Amino acid sequence: MNLAVTEPTRLLEAYSEHLTDSGGIMQQSVSALVELMSSANRKLVPKCISLCIIASSSPETQFQLCKDGAWEILLKWLQEALKEDNYAFLLELLKVYLLLPVRLEQLTQNVCPKLINSLTKRCDHEEVKSVAVDIVKKWKDVISSDSRHLVSNHVKRKKIETEAKPCNTDVHSHDTLKDEKKRRTTVKIPPNNMRTAGMEDTSTQAQPKSRSDILAKRSKIDSDNCLTSEFPIESFHQKITVTPTEPRKGF
C-alpha cells in the first residue's frame, strides 16, 4: 500500500520539471511524456499518471502529443483494456479520448474509432457505453466537418487552376510579343559612313551630293563645252599682220 502511494509520488516528482502549473505537460517536453508512455508496458501507475497529465494539458499540446506517437500508444492501451475487461481503466482512457482535439487525419490512422464505436453497441458497462457514445458523436462531427473542408478546398483549387490556364496563355502571348518588339529595337543598324581610324578631320571630309546636284553640275559642264566649241582659239601658226604706226614726236 505504501509502495502504491510512494511510486506515483516519486514519478510525479521526477517529471515535475516538465509539468505546467495546471499539471499538464509543457510543449517542449512532449517527447518526455511520450517516452514515459512507451515504457509503461502493462503497468497501470505510469499509464494512469500519463492519462492525468494528458487530460491537464492544453489542446495544442494534446494535438502535438497525438502527432508525436501518443495516438498509437493509446490504441495499444485500449486494446489491452478491452482484452482484460478492465472497465475502470477503460473509462479513464475514454474520458481522455473525449478531450483530445483529434482531426480526420488521426481518425483514419488506425482502428481506434472502430473499437470505440463497437462499445456503443455491445458493452455491458453503462458508464463506459455512455462515454463511448459521446466520443462517436463528437468524432462523426469532426469527420463531417473536415470532409466538407477538404471537398471545398479541392473545388477551390480546381477553380483556381482552371482560371489560371487562360491567364497563363495571355501572359505567354504578351511575353512573346514583348520579346519580338525587343528584338526589333535591339537590331544594330550599320552606319552610313565607313568606320575610320579616328584620326581624320571630319570637317574636311567630302559630303555626299544628291542626284540633283550631280545632274546640275553635269549640265553646266556640257554647256561650257558647247560655248568653247563655238569660239575656237586660233592656232599659233596662224599669220599675224602688224600695221605700222606714226612715230611719236620728240624723238
UniProtKB/TrEMBL annotation:
Q: Which UniProt keywords apply?
A: Nucleus
Record-level GO cellular component terms: chromatin; nucleus; PTW/PP1 phosphatase complex
This chain belongs to the protein called Serine/threonine-protein phosphatase 1 regulatory subunit 10
Presence of the UniProt keyword Lipid metabolism in the record: no
Q: Where in the cell is it found?
A: Nucleus
PROSITE patterns per record: TFIIS_N
Q: Cross-referenced InterPro entries, in alphabetical order? A: TFIIS/LEDGF_dom_sf, TFIIS_N
Which species?
Schistosoma japonicum (Blood fluke)
